[in-house]
Amino acid sequence: MINADDLRTIWLTAKLASIVTFILLLIGTALAWWLARTRSWLKRLVAPIIALPMVLPPVVLGFYLLLVMGPNGPIGKLTSFLGLAPLPFTLHGLVMGSVFYSLPFMVHPLQSSFEAINNRYLEVASTLRASPIDTFFTVVIPVAMPGFISASVITFAHTVGEFGMVLMIGGNLPGVTRVASVQIYDYVESMDFASAHRLAGVMLVFSFLVLLAIHLCNYKDKSRYSAE
Amino acid sequence: MNNIQARFLIKRSGFTFDVDLEIAGRGVTVFFGHSGSGKTTILRCIAGLERASQGYLCVNGKIWQDSSFFLPTYKRPLGYVFQESSLFPHLTVLGNLCYGMKRVVKAQRADLEKAIELLDIAYLLKRKPDGLSGGEKQRVAIARAITINPSILLMDEPLASLDIKRRQEILPYLKELRDELDIPVLYVSHNPDEVVQLADNMVIMEEGSIIANGTLEHVVTKIDLPVKIGEDAGVVFEASIAKVDTAWNLCRIDFSGGSIWARDSGIAVGSSVRIRILARDVSISKKPLEQISIQNSLQGVVDAIGADEHPGLALVRVKIGASFILSRLTRRAVMDLELNCGDSVWVHVKSAATISYHGRRRK
User: Fold this and answer.
1) Using an 8 Å Cβ cutoff, are B354 and B262 in contact?
2) Beta pairing partners, B5
3) Which chain A residue lies closest to B108 (C-alpha atoms)?
4) Which residues have CB under 8 Å from A217's CB, separation 6+?
5) Residue B363, pLDDT above cutoff 60
6) What is the rounded distance in angstroms from the CA atom of residue B278 to the CA atom of residue B328?
7) Furthest-apart CA pair in chain B: how many Å?
C-alpha cells in the first residue's frame, strides 16, 4: 500500500502543480491573448522565448535558474534586499522554476484557441455595448473554455512530471521539495523496486486519466461548435 | 437634427474609398453596388468597426467621429446585423437576445417581447444557435440588434447567406420592421428584389465612391447609371389602391401622375402600395390610340432619352405629373417617332406589379 511518505510526496506534487497552474492561468492567458492578437514585431522575439523550455534540457534551465536565484544572481540579490529567504531549495523556488518550465504548455493551447475565435464575435459584442474587457470575460473566455481546460490539464500534468529542473532548484528535501518523480528516482537508487512500482503506477494511471480527459473535452468541443 | 452626415476617406493600395453623404433620419436607405464597391466599408465606418484615416460622422446631431475624436463602437447607440449568422455559440437564443440589453440602461431597453413577436422567434428561446436554421439564426440576430433600442440600425446583406426560400421567409419581417421602427435603417444589398421592396432611399456605389444618392424613385429613373438595378430597368413608386372591380378582378392604383388598372391581388381599398413598372412593359405613341389591348394610357412629356445596354435599344423617361415612367424602345422606333425631349406623348402601360403594401389584405 501507499505509505505516509508517498502520500506526503503526492500531496506536495499536487500542491506544486496546482499553484503553478493557477499562476500560469493568469500569466499565460494574458500572454496568449497578446500573442494571438498583436501584429507587433516583438511577437517574433517573445514567441520563441516562451517556447524555449520545450527544447531546452530541463537540467540546463534549472542550472540557469539556480544561478539567477542564488545569492549572487539578480533575483537572489532582490530577495535578500527585501529580507526574504533565498529561493533555491524551497517550494517557492520550485514554483518559480516550474512557472518558467511549464509556460509554453499553457500559452500554446490557449493561443491557438484564441486564434480560432471568429473575430466577428468580438465585433458583435462591441455593437452590443460590450467594452473590450467585458467582451473578454463574457465572450472570449466562455467560447475558449475547452482550450482553458485542456491547457490547464496539460500544464498540471507537465508540472507533476518534471524531474531535472526540480532536482537542480529544489534538491530532494522530504516534504519540502521532494516531488513524486524525485521520490521514484530515490526508490530506484535504493533498489526499492516495489515502492517505485507503486508510485510509478499511480503516475501512470494519473497520466492516462489526464489524456482521457483532454480527448473527451476536445470531442465535446467539436460536437458543440461544429455547425459554426 | 435627425440625419446622418458622413465623410470618410480610406486609401489602400489599389483602392480608394472616398464618400461624403447625408442620410435621412428615417426610412430605409439601401446601399447598392457590386461586391468590392465599398458598401460594407461605409457601414463598418459608421459603426466604428473600421477607422477611416480621415473621417467625420455626425448622427442626429451628435459627433461620433471627427479629426480629433473617435467614439468606440461599444459606446455608439447602434444596432448591427452581419451578413452571416453571428450568434454567440455559448449562449442560448434568449441569452443572445439579452446580451446587449443587460448593457444598456433600463430606459434604453426595447420591449423584448415585442422584438420576439416581431421576428416570431418565441419557440427558439431556449435553444442553442447551432441547432437553428440559417433563416432562424438571422431572425434572432435581427431581434438581438433591436433589443437595445438603437438610434440607427445597420444591416450588412442580412439575407445574402440564405437561399431564395429563406430570403422570402425573412423579407416580410424586414418590411414589418421598417414600418415599426422610427429610426434610420442603413441596409447594404446587391439584390434588386430587396432594394425595390425595402428601400425608401438609395445610394449607389462603385469603386469606393457614391455615384447616385436620393429617393428610390429618383435613383431608379436615372437613365445614365452605369450600375443596373436588376436585369430590367423600370420604375418603382408609392401608390394607393383606389378601387376594386370585382366583376373583372381588377384594381385601380392611383399615383401622383394618374391611375392605372392592374390585376386585383386582394389588397384592401385605401392601402398604400409600392408598384413596379418595367420599361419593357411600356410603349409610347405620339397620339392617343384607339382599339388597342393596352388599357392604361397616360399622357406625359418626354424628359430624357438615354442609351440602353444593347446598342439597338434606348430608354425613354417620360414625366407624368410628378412621377416618371421608363420605356424601353428600339433606337429605330425613337427615330421613326422623332422623339425629342419636351415632346408630348402617350404612354401605354401593359402591366404593373404590386411589390409590397401596407394595410390589410381583403378576406
Assistant:
1) yes
2) B22, B58
3) A129
4) A146, A149, A150, A153
5) no
6) 9
7) 70
CA distances from B148 to A33, B11, B26, B144 (A): 29, 33, 18, 8
pLDDT by 10-residue block (mean), chain A, 228 residues: 83 93 96 94 93 91 90 88 86 91 95 94 95 95 92 92 88 84 90 91 89 78 49
On whether any CB of chain A is under 8 Å from the CB of B176, the answer is no
Residue B74 in contact with partner chain A when CB distance is under 8 A = yes
The amino acid occupying position B136 is E
The set of residues, in sequence order, having a beta carbon less than 8 Å from that of A121 and lying 6+ positions away, is A139, A143, B86, B88
CB contact, 8 Å: A228 with chain B?
yes
Under a CB-based contact definition with an 8 Å cutoff, are residues A59 and A168 in contact? Answer: yes
Does the interface predicted TM-score (ipTM) exceed 0.85? no
Closest Cβ–Cβ partner in B47, B84, B104 for A129: B104
Q: Which CA distances in Å does A149 have to A113, A115, A156, B168, B342?
A: 11, 16, 11, 43, 77
Are residues A129 and B100, on separate chains, in Cβ contact within 8 Å? yes
Query: How many A×B Cβ pairs under 8 Å?
Result: 73
What tens digit of pLDDT does each residue of B114-172 get? 889 888 899 999 999 998 988 899 999 999 999 988 989 999 999 888 888 888 878 88
φ, ψ for residue B73, nearest 5 deg: -50, -45
Return the ∠ at Cα A166 (arms to A98 and A83), rounded to 5°.
Answer: 75
User: Which chain B residues are closer than 8 Å to A136 by Cβ?
Assistant: none
Residue B279 Rama label (left phi>0; alpha psi -120 to 50; beta): alpha
pLDDT digits (tens, 9 = 90+) for B258-314: 889 998 888 888 888 888 888 889 999 998 888 888 889 999 999 889 888 788 888
Cross-chain residue pair B99–A224, CB shorter than 8 Å: no
Q: How many residues does chain A have?
A: 228
Q: What residue of A is the nearest CA neighbor of B100? A: A128
Say if A136 is an interface residue toward chain B (CB within 8 Å): no
In this structure, is the dihedral angle defined by the CA atoms of residues B308, B314, B320 and B325, taken in order, positive or negative? negative
CB A228 to CB B90 under 8 A?
no
CB atoms within 10 A of CB A220: 11
SS3 A137: helix
Q: Give all strands of the β-sheet with B62-66 in edge-to-edge order.
A: B15-24, B3-12, B54-59, B62-66, B69-70
Q: Which residues of A touch B90 (CB under 8 A)?
A: 139, 142-143, 145
Record the cell numbers describing residue A9, joined without a space: 510526496
- The secondary structure of B224-293 as a DSSP string is T-SS-SSSS-EEEEEEEEEEEETTTTEEEEEETTEEEEEE--SBPTT-EEEEEEEGGGEEEESS--SS-S
Give the residue carrying C-alpha cell 476617406. Answer: B9
**Over chain B, what is the mean pLDDT?**
88
Grid coordinates of B175: 418590411
CB of A145 less than 8 A from some CB of B: yes
- Considering only the beta carbons, identify the residue of B88, B130, B148 that sits closest to A121: B88
